[in-house]
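Q: Sequence in, structure out?
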Amino acid sequence: MVKIRLRRTGSKKKPTYRVVVADSRSPRDGRFVEIIGYYNPRTEPTTFNIQEDRAIYWLSVGAQPTDVVQKLLKNSGTMERFTQAKAQAKEATAAPAA
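A: Exactly. Output:
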């Protein structure tokens, strides 16, 4: 299974994270498929940047976000845009059949 999760970077006691797409069997900081963004919880307010088109692509092909990443995607509005795109695709495939 493919997951969208955080990969820890930064020095000791000063974490920053990369948002990566990785196989669920690989270790936290191990092999990944693609880097799609970053997250820095130490700034005020926290910094979260993601390539929205790539995140929506990976969600559409079945990648599962972890709880923290899902919360970040929801706060940034990416999950809402994904559900809208999914609904539009469903309507587009249902319309010719009607």
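The radius of gyration is 15 Å.
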